[in-house]
Amino acid sequence: MRGKTVLVTGGTAGIGKETARGLARLGATVILVGRNPDRARNAADELSQEADGEVTVLPADLADLAGLRRLAEQVAGRYGRLDVLVNNAGGVNAERRLTRDGVEATFAVNVLAPYALTCLLLPLLRTADGGRVVNLTGGLPDGAIDPDNLQGEKTFLGWTFTQYNHTKTALMAMSHRFASLLGEEVTVNVAYPGHASTPGNRAIPMRAFPYLYRPVAPLVRLLGPLLLSDLTRAARSSIHLASSPEVEGITGAYFDARTRRASWPAGALDARGQEAVWSLCERLSGLSPA
Known about the structure:
It is a single chain. By secondary structure, this protein is an alpha/beta fold. The chain has one domain: Rossmann fold, CATH 3.40.50. It contains eleven helices and eight strands. Helix 5 (163-182) packs across helix 11 (271-285). The longest helix is centred in the middle third of the chain and has 23 residues, at 105-127. It starts with a strand and ends in a 5-residue tail after the last helix. The model has no long low-confidence stretch (mean pLDDT 89).
């Protein structure tokens, strides 16, 4: 990865930080993107101690479309090329709320931000020799996509079986469509990290759990570090897709937590669901790959 530049969203903690660590150890110049500038700088200082490449910071709020545009402008101003974009950042919200752009917040971070940032950075990715986009899914992204409930308009519950998983399936649908449009010019693949003990998981409020799960939620939290994957293992697939020569030229693929190619969930391949997600992202962002 020496001589290559990689941007990792949500790179200041959890799986994103471990992904950035792994790529920096391989010699890449890594750009950490996080909402909190102090946390981002602290993460960059830590990773720089063991990096074989440069680690830099660009703070940004991924739920804000204007912030995404500023981020893309900063990357273009500092770097003439971007080799890999890792859309790692994800969000879970206990209640339905809207961003300043009027977008449901979970959808904004988990789906719209990866879509918009990929569109905005596509010129830099096209400049690279074999540019790559790696999108991280999560949760249980194997349900159907409801075109009428993409932003939780009808029903909303933040955690498992509802909005979080719905948006992760939508992310996969969007990624599959992106790969079909771009071909091998810029590859777009999806990594599944498995269930890991992340800061985000540990911070999920009780009211975000389904009602039936709330009595056992404290036990799940207590046993989480013992039952769930550690962050190093959870970052393997994203590092593999970002760096391995084995996946050069491969696009529109889904890789499991053990870096093995896997079958796409049926919901992500549904043509009606794909079209609904793509059209909504295009309309909300005002952007397209063209």
